[in-house]
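If you are new to this repository, start here. Below is one unmodified record pulled from the training split, so you can see the exact layout before writing a loader.
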Amino acid sequence: MTIRLNGDGCRYCQPQTYIDHLEMAAAENLMEVERLEMALGSEIVKVATLRHAIHMHQQSDFNADHPALAKAMRATDNKEQ
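And here is the target side for that same chain:
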């Protein structure tokens, strides 16, 4: 946490100014945490998208290598739904 004191705001001489500076620093840190959470959230979405793409690619490779088995699996999946 950063605390800016410009010669005023001594916690003993001017406690309210000191408290105000602490609140501003806490608010700035909270905004930074929220920004980082949003950035992390977008990265998580990217990872999920890439995982899905890899899965679909692997599935298409499987379907190409084993068309009869893939057809039987799709038929079974459709019956379960």
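Two things worth knowing about this chain: The radius of gyration is 28 Å. The helical segments are 15-65, 67-80.
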